Amino acid sequence: MTVTAPETSTSATEQPARSRVGLRHLFAATRGHRRNIAVALLFTLVGAGLGLLQPMLAMQTIDAVGAGGAVGWLLVALVTVFVAEAGADTIGRYWLERSGEGVVLGLRVRLISHLLRLPMRLYDHHRIGDLLSRTTADTTLLRDTLAYDLVEMLTGSFVVIGGTVAMLWLSPLLFGIVAVIVGGVGGVTLFVLARIRNATENAQDNLGLMAAELERALSAIRTIRATRAEDRETARIGHYAHTTYQDNVRAARLNSIAGPAVTLSAHGALIAVLVTGGIQVANGNLTLAELVAFLLYVSYIAVPSAGLFELAATIQRGLAAFQRVHDMTRLPTETDHTPTSLVSPASAPVLELRDVWFSYHPDRPVLRGVSFTVPRRGHVALVGPSGAGKSTILALIERFYEPDRGTILFNGYQPSIAECRQRIGLVEQTTPILHGTLRDNLTYAAPDATDEQIRDVLEKTNLTEFVSRLPAGLETPAGEHGGMLSGGQRQRLAIARALLARPELLLLDEPTSQLDAANEAAFAQTLDQVAGECALLVIAHRPATVRRAQTVIALEQGRISTDAGLVP
CA-CA distance, 11 to 8, in Å (whole number)? Predict the structure, then answer.
């Protein structure tokens, strides 16, 4: 595995310049669901069109009554239009909800896949709780925008335009009065929309921080209880909850200006039309039926008009949520530009580091020109004081990070990242155990493992007796983060999981740190067996582990040292 400094000049920690999202980005997110959205829009527009017919039918009915004509067919037509409008709205609503859920499902799956493929450096700089918030809370807020607000705005606009045309045809004078009143209030409402979006973005950001702090606290709940830190953590997390509250109140205050203003304008327009229209009817310039029809149109478009401004505010909140989702999807994923070589020299060691330099922060190198080899069989111990860079070396071998300078070879050539991780096993010092059964955890890296292979690794890691005592055996739940297991059991289970994948190189980070003396002695024998099947690179402090190694590599301050720094 030859690895050198990345060719790109952009650091993995650098985020792309923020691109302000707009409606075109939301439209792009509907790809694959546009046919369903079109069906929903069609039925919703049909319902809106049928609604626009009702004032005209009412006007004709009034004229027919005044003229003493037949009104039966007009009443039937009115009822038919009412029922048809309700049916069209129902169908449109269903397809809207279904389409919105489908779009958000696609976004969530894409976001989850993206999050699981980010470079490790990005996880070092992003809070896990905030990433969870973007996947859950932000996509939920976005769903309402996609499933309801956008199409409602389109149909509301259609109703307003259709009603406007009808009112112009009935009475240009009355329409002019309505336009002046509604237009003035509309200008004030538009002024606050951008501020609503900013307040919502801040609220969502703080909600993400609150989720991150809560995730941090729950992950260390035993420590918090043991140190009586409940009140301090409540205050810390509550700070972000309070800040979120303040931002949401600010958005609500701005929204409260728009809503009543639009309602007031609608009522004002209705009163103005009644007064002016009554004068027009008295002067003979307008018939009573035309005034009733005009009033119906004012009432009919008043709700959509008010709704348009409220929907605009809601869409701003949805765009604020989509901004956070969009920002995350634009982060670069882990890429592999490795030109895979199929040549594997038989004499090459399984692993070779040549003059490897690495730093987590510029000008603060963790590794300084590290060079060593690991043979294809045998046990190599990597020792040194804490902070010397031992775990960093394992992370570089697994290609979680790329070296700033130098070369890393696997079997004398350069495999892809996927091939590298398929052939190299890693047991971390923290021994993460996933939620699920013991079998789920054991076979995580080798889901097709046979029962015989499972029994073999259980025997090697001294877990056979423990599993046999459990009523459900391997189907026993491990608990959240392995909470149902002891520290030693978690560590042995993680080691068994790595062995089951049959790696060519097995990396162990402090594998005996949580084992008692009996299990440590048994595991030492396991290491001897494994060393005969594959290469072992073990970070160790305990002398018992180091003594069984054929080679000991001492690391100090990022350099190979002659002083092993062993614990006596």
Answer: 8
**In 116-229, which ranges are continuous DSSP H helix?**
120-125, 128-133, 139-144, 150-170, 172-219, 221-226
Give residue 310's pLDDT: 64
Residue 232 CB partners (closer than 8 Å, separation 6+): none
Rg (CA), the chain: 34
Tell me, what amino acid is at 477? Answer: P
* Burial environment of residue 148 by CB neighbours within 10 A (0 to 12, 13 to 18, 19 or more): middle
Separation of alpha carbons 326 and 134, rounded Å: 10
Taken in order of first residue, the domains within the chain and their CATH numbers are 20-171+286-331 (1.20.1560.10), 173-269 (no CATH), 351-560 (3.40.50.300)
Residue type, 536: L
The pair of three-digit structure tokens given for residue 55, joined into one six-digit string: 């004032």
Query: Are 257 and 191 a contacting pair, CB within 8 Å?
Result: no
Token pair 């049916």: residue: 87
- Six-digit token string for 500: 């089951």
Query: What is the C-alpha to C-alpha distance for residues 85 and 394, in angstroms, rounded to an integer?
Result: 66
Give the pLDDT of residue 284: 80
And the tokens for 315? Answer: 């869409």
Q: List CB contacts of 347: < 8 A, sequence separation 6 or more.
A: 412
Which residue is associated with the tokens 């290469």?
535
CA distances for 314 relative to 64, 91, 258, angstroms: 44, 23, 12
DSSP 538: E
Cα 412 to its chain centre, rounded Å, is 39
How open is the CA angle 191-203-28, to the nearest 5 degrees? 70
> Residue 102, CB half-sphere, CA atoms under 13 Å: how many?
14
Which are the contacts of 474, defined by CB distance < 8 A and separation ≥ 6? 437, 438, 439, 442, 454, 467
Distance CA 117, CA 71 (A): 69
pLDDT attached to residue 3: 46
Bridge-based pairing state of the strands 505-509 and 424-427: parallel
pLDDT at 306: 59
Asked whether 277 and 294 are in contact (CB, 8 A), the reply is yes
Q: What average pLDDT values come out for the chain (568 residues) when binned by 10 residues?
A: 42 54 75 83 82 74 69 77 84 82 83 83 77 78 72 74 81 81 67 71 79 75 73 84 84 72 71 80 80 78 65 74 82 72 67 91 88 89 88 90 89 82 85 83 88 89 87 86 78 86 88 74 76 85 77 90 49
If we measure between CA atoms, which residue out of 318, 104, 115 comes closest to residue 201? Answer: 318
